Amino acid sequence: MSNFSFPSWYEESESLTPKIRRGGKLLEKNAEKFLKTISHLSNRIDTSLVSEIDIRIKSLLILIAVIFITFAKSFYSLFFAFLFSLIPYFFSKNAIKKIYPFFLGSLVFFFFVAPIATTEFITKGEVIFKIFKVGITKEGIITVSRLFLRSFSTLFLVLLLASTTPLSRLSGDMPFPSSLKVIFTIMHLNIRKMLVFSYDSYLSRISRSPIFLGSNSNRKYIGFFLSKLFKNSLKTSEEIHFALVSRGWQRKLPPKAPLKFGLKEFVFTAFFISFYLFMVFAFK
Amino acid sequence: MSEPLIVLDNVSFSYGNGEWAVEDVSFSIEKGDSIALLGANGSGKSTLIKLIDGLIFPQKGNITAFEVKTDEKVFNAPQFRYRFRKEVSLLFQNCDAQLFCEKVEDELTFTSFQIGLKEEEIKRRVEEIANIFNLKHLLNKAPYTLSEGEKKRVALASLLLHKPTLLLLDEPTAHLDARNLNFVSTLLKQFHKKGLTLVFATHEIWLARKISTKVVLLSENHRVAKIGTTEEITNDTELLKEENLI
What we know:
The structure holds two protein chains of two kinds. Chain A is mostly helical. Chain A has helices at residues 26-41, 49-52, 55-71, 75-86, 93-117, 138-163, 167-172, 178-207, 216-246, 263-282; strands at residues 127-131, 134-137. Chain A has a two-stranded antiparallel ribbon with strand order 1-2. In chain A, strand 1 (127-131) and strand 2 (134-137) form a beta hairpin. Chain A is flat and about 85 Å long. By secondary structure, chain B is of the alpha/beta class. Chain B has one domain (6-242): 3-Layer(aba) Sandwich (Rossmann fold). Chain B has helices at residues 45-52, 72-76, 78-87, 95-98, 104-115, 119-132, 148-160, 178-193, 205-211, 230-234, 237-242; strands at residues 4-14, 20-30, 34-39, 60-65, 68-70, 88-91, 166-170, 197-202, 214-218, 224-229. Chain B has a six-stranded mixed sheet with strand order 6-7-8-3-9-10, sandwiched between helices. In chain B, strands 2-1-4-5 form a four-stranded antiparallel sheet. In chain B, helix 5 crosses helix 6 and helix 5 (104-115) runs parallel beside helix 7 (148-160). The mean pLDDT of chain B is 89. The interface between A and B is large, with 45 and 53 residues.
């Protein structure tokens, strides 16, 4: 192979007709941003107040909040619960960056689906205005608003847990059956590797692309790229499992961290519980 | 003196963990250079390569590319981005990360297609380069099913197809067997003779001796230990020992 002939076209001059695009479309730009964000954040150490609270206390409080949000009937309690679910994010910039792509994706999905529920065909009631002969009902708008508050408060709380807790603690400290923990252990090792890998793939995509994502011919590469990440994650999971077995893994998991209930946990719990108790009694 | 393609001026970069991955690095890449970024593991070679390629941006110092002082905003300008990506190509250390298309053929044509080369011209180049790189039988295969040597050959061929001016390589000989090692190093030397500017990160002295004319020696404290000709630096055994390279 070392005695190769040199490509004939290498020293020829060439005339190019550059196709230069000015930026990509919103969703495609966000796909790029998403890859950049998740991979960048894998390098960051989160030292915020919320991230330091014991995972078991955080999950129990979030479970209570989700039960309240699921059964709450008053519009006001849902509205305040929604605002309350945003408060912890003010203490962690990393968490905001992490949830941003998920939030945006859910919001786009919501705005595709929700308008249908406001129509007179789905929710009967008083028609307040019409769009292309389709009546929009007052009850429909209320239903959709409730749905928005309910689903997004829940989403923010669940994402708070995921975005402020290291994956290892999420699987290690929670009272799950050990078989589930084994799966979590392999998954979290894989995700950690995939984050580094996705960062490299993201950089490679930029390095090899003289134009922005966005044209029809270019759009398919996001699909290729994501499917490749998925295929590789399967391969990596298998390799991680082999490596664990080969290195004498006896399915022993790292010991649970002792339950921490200091001043921070006390203030966080008291604040959380007082808010939801107030909500239960204030808006029946 | 030939024109500088890229100039690094006191460049420092941190991944946000409170430590510099690269600190106060200054040197220039001139047309026709073949520069080895020589350093032990963790000395900041890969980070430096990514900084030169405009994939990450320094927190301190400046990088000038094609006489334009660069930053994220400059790289987001379509005209500059087009020119830079056409002129500069990067071979990643991990080929699995680099190759993202469905078929080897798509990999080869990716950048050439993006920069607007005509279809017949791309076809002609692919045919020839597939012969030279012994890839003809792999054109319809998925890149992730290939061996490491094959992946490296595909990655290199895909970068050379659109004739970049500057080729950056991050550990170009990592994970290669003897035959592929010889092929890649000889190929790079030949392309350099034809005028291709090379900058490659490596910790292998033999590779620096074979391909490079100039060495930027990075120390384990992420700073430049010495810049000099390949002969001068690779013959300084005391310095190489000090920098954990022999």
